[in-house]
Write a structure and sequence with these properties.
The structure holds two protein chains of two kinds.
Chain A: E1 19-30, E2 38-46, E3 50-54, H1 61-69, E4 77-86, E5 89-92, E6 107-110, H2 114-117, H3 124-136, H4 140-153, H5 159-164, H6 172-184, E7 190-194, H7 202-219, E8 222-226, H8 230-236, E9 239-244, E10 247-253, H9 254-259, H10 264-271, E11 319-323, E12 326-329, H11 336-342
Parallel strand pairs in A: 3-8, 3-9, 6-7, 7-8
Antiparallel strand pairs in A: 1-2, 1-4, 4-5, 9-10, 10-12, 11-12
Helix pairs in contact in A: 3-4, 3-6, 4-6
Chain B: H1 2-29, H2 34-39, H3 45-54, H4 61-73, H5 87-122, H6 127-141, H7 144-158, H8 174-208, H9 211-218, H10 223-253, H11 255-260, H12 266-275, H13 279-307, H14 309-313
Helix pairs in contact in B: 1-13, 5-6, 5-8, 5-10, 5-13, 6-8, 7-8, 8-10, 9-10, 10-13, 12-13
Classes of the chains: A alpha/beta, B mainly alpha.
The complex binds adenosine-5'-triphosphate (ATP) and magnesium ion.
Chain lengths: 343, 314
């Protein structure tokens, strides 16, 4: 994937207010492996935008998100390339991470595991207030007041009592709300949500999604949301990045991706997908499974599972425009001419 | 809190009772007659019989046991067969000495073992971790008596920095008391520090990979705070358990070290009593030690209670 796969200049005016985050050609390889796990990912999140990243388990979604946050354990991986621009400042990820003072402040993250993501030893109030104190300073009482306001904001009733409670006293949905409260403590410009609702049941999931949707509308916060659930994507996303084997194979506005998928992998995902007006489907099963990282084929990484693959696919495809802000990294894209006719 | 500790006490009481029966029975089963020690050269059956009567050794075992327990409950652990002193007095004399030794050793064990354990867990796989593990293993493998003797030879004999032996009560001369106890507690403490370090390390390793530690980092907290607050707080429980256990063992097991540094403590009392078949003293010591262990366990339980919000909530 080329490094300027989604430069802001190519985006139609109006859909791209200020870019909050831009990740360019991010490549990461774990130590002891010869193949890059994340292989040239580029993406942008602008103010008020929700970008959803979808893809099968193990395709590098979390690794990418953790790298943006600078949370990958030290000494286990090497960044081969990648520039991270955040609020106009650019960091070369090979040499530096995001400055720590931005973390939990301007960029916040919530995780898939609400049950274990809060510290069992400290009260809810302490854990939210800590985030406030770390980045805004002030007195403990002020931070607690802020924590209380945040609980109200994320829709928790009886906030005064909840402040004093410990994680074991809360349900999974409550805990995820508390995690969101922690994330929002310092009015972040960007929220990274790694499968925030996977562990929750459907009603709670809808409430949490509504909350995120509401927040971005109220505050202009950009959101990078990782999910397995195409129903979630249909409901909440502005743009979608489809990942396969550490690469973004298709990227574009949500309607484009659903109505006019260009990459054979995306088409596979969509084939069992309910229509846009009837969301709720899980990620469809594409035949076969992702090869182990060491067995990733050269050229197009999807070719071992692709129904359309031919010898061209041993060469690495470049992203091709398939509409406004819509790219697919496939030799056959745009598909109109070949496959639509056949189908 | 009250309910919680009451429940623990309900376990503690039968435990002590069981131990007391066990101690009593074992003593009676052992071969050899303590009276022969007591009587010295005297072998006149009539005199022996009189002594038996005096120490009530002819009563049925159940009665003997019952008398012993009821007296013990009133703080009367009997009279030493050998020195004719009350056992409780003997124990009260020696116990503070050993408690001081144990406490000072524990300070060494904790101040060395815990930070070393945290550091080596945090830097897992690094040179620091490796060195800490090698040092800890050496600490475990080097016998206390050897380290003790070496320290005496170097620090006391060669450099003349600290007294080689003896004991000064805390109440008499606080500074001097600490100085005399410094080497023996260092010897005991470093050995325990190794154990402490290994347990701290493994406890820290399991919490450092916890999701809430990742959350703490995602908040943008300093590493120091992530490790020492968010991780360590959750690794405390096993450390508290170990501290309680080790402290009990220290009191009961400081024999060798007390011998080397000629500290007139509990250890010496135990050894003398056992070798002299001084029943009353041995029984008393075992009972006091057992109660001490159980007390330490209760203390640990109280600590769990304080550490664990879930227990507190009940
Ligand atoms: N520390 C590590 N060392 C080696 N490989 C790793 C490490 N962490 C993750 N990986 C590998 O990197 C790949 C991408 O993992 P990642 O967690 O990003 O997947 P994901 O897309 O988030 O999947 P899921 O949907 O299951 O969360 C996986 O194959 C995983 O095994
Ligand atoms: Mg993941």
């Amino acid at each position: 994937m080329s490094s300027d796969h989604c430069p802001p200049s190519e985006r139609p005016a109006g859909t791209a207010p200020a870019d909050i985050l831009r990740l360019t050609d991010f490549k990461l390889r774990f130590r002891g492996q010869s193949v890059a796990t994340v292989n040239g990912v580029s993406l942008t999140v602008s103010a008020g935008e929700i970008l959803c990243i979808v893809g099968e388990s193990g395709c590098g979604k979390s690794v990418t998100a953790m790298s943006v946050m600078g949370l990958l354990p030290k000494g286990t991986s090497d960044v081969l390339s990648g520039d991270l621009s955040f609020m106009g400042k650019t960091y070369d990820l090979r040499r530096q991470n995001l400055p720590p003072h931005l973390r939990g402040n301007q960029i916040a993250m919530i995780f898939q595991e609400p049950m274990t993501s809060l510290n069992p030893a400290f009260s809810v109030g302490d854990q939210i207030a800590e985030s406030v104190l770390q980045h805004q300073g002030g007195t403990r009482a002020e931070a607690m007041q802020r924590a209380r306001d945040l609980l109200v904001k994320v829709g928790i009733s009886a906030p005064d009592q909840r402040l004093k409670e410990y994680p074991y006293q809360l349900s999974g949905g409550m805990r995820q709300r508390v995690m969101i409260a922690i994330a929002l403590a310092n009015d972040p410009k960007l929220l990274i949500a790694d499968e925030p609702t996977t562990a929750l049941d459907v009603t709670i999931q809808a409430q949490i999604l509504d909350l995120i949707d509401e927040l971005r509308r109220d505050t202009g916060m950009g959101t990078m949301m990782i999910t397995h659930d195409l129903g979630v994507v249909a409901e909440i996303a502005d743009n979608v990045a489809v990942m396969y084997g550490g690469e973004i194979v298709e990227y574009g506005p949500v309607r484009e991706i659903f109505a006019n998928p260009q990459h054979p992998y995306t088409i596979g995902l969509m084939s069992a997908m309910p229509r846009l007006d009837r969301p709720g489907g899980r990620l469809a099963i594409v035949p076969g499974s992702v090869p182990a990282i060491e067995n990733m084929p050269s050229g197009c990484r999807f070719r071992t599972r692709c129904a359309f693959a031919n010898e061209r696919c041993t060469e690495r495809p470049l992203p091709k425009a398939a509409g406004s802000g819509h790219h697919a990294t496939c030799h056959f894209a745009p598909l109109e001419d070949h496959i639509r006719v056949q189908a | 809190m009250f309910l919680f500790l009451t429940r623990r006490l309900l376990i503690a009481v039968p435990t002590i009772l069981l131990i007391s029966i066990f101690v009593f029975a074992l003593q009676k089963l052992l071969p050899g007659d303590p009276l022969l020690v007591l009587a010295g050269e005297e072998r006149d059956p009539q005199v022996l019989e009189l002594l038996r009567e005096k120490y009530r050794l002819n009563d049925p075992l159940a009665v003997q046991y019952f008398t012993w327990v009821t007296n013990a409950l009133q703080g009367d652990l009997g009279i030493s067969l050998r020195t004719n002193q009350p056992v409780s007095e003997l124990i009260l004399q020696k116990l503070p000495v050993t408690l001081q030794l144990a406490a000072m050793s524990m300070v060494f064990a904790l101040t060395i073992g815990v930070p070393a354990g945290i550091l080596s867990a945090y830097k897992k796989g690094s040179l620091t971790d490796y060195i800490a593990n090698v040092v800890a293993l050496s600490g475990l493998s080097i016998p206390n008596f050897w380290l003790g003797i070496m320290l005496i030879l170097l620090v006391s004999v060669k450099w003349q920095l600290l007294p080689a032996s003896g004991y000064v009560p805390l109440s008499e001369d606080f500074g001097q008391s600490l100085r005399t106890m410094l080497m023996p507690s260092f010897v005991l403490g470093t050995a325990l520090a190794a154990t402490m370090m290994r347990h701290t390390r493994s406890a820290m390793l399991s919490v450092l990979s916890a999701d809430y530690v990742r959350t703490a980092r995602a908040k943008g907290l300093r590493e120091r705070r992530v490790v020492l607050k968010h991780a360590f707080r959750n690794a405390l429980t096993p450390i508290v358990t170990l501290t309680a256990l080790l402290f009990g063992e220290l009191v009961a097991g400081a024999v060798l070290t007390e011998q080397i540094f000629t500290i007139p403590g509990f250890g010496k009392l135990v050894v003398d009593a056992v070798f002299n078949r001084d029943y009353a003293v041995v029984q008393g010591i075992v009972l006091v030690t057992a109660v001490g262990f159980i007390f330490m366990n209760l203390l640990a339980d109280a600590m769990y209670y304080i550490l664990n919000p879930r227990l507190r909530g009940q």
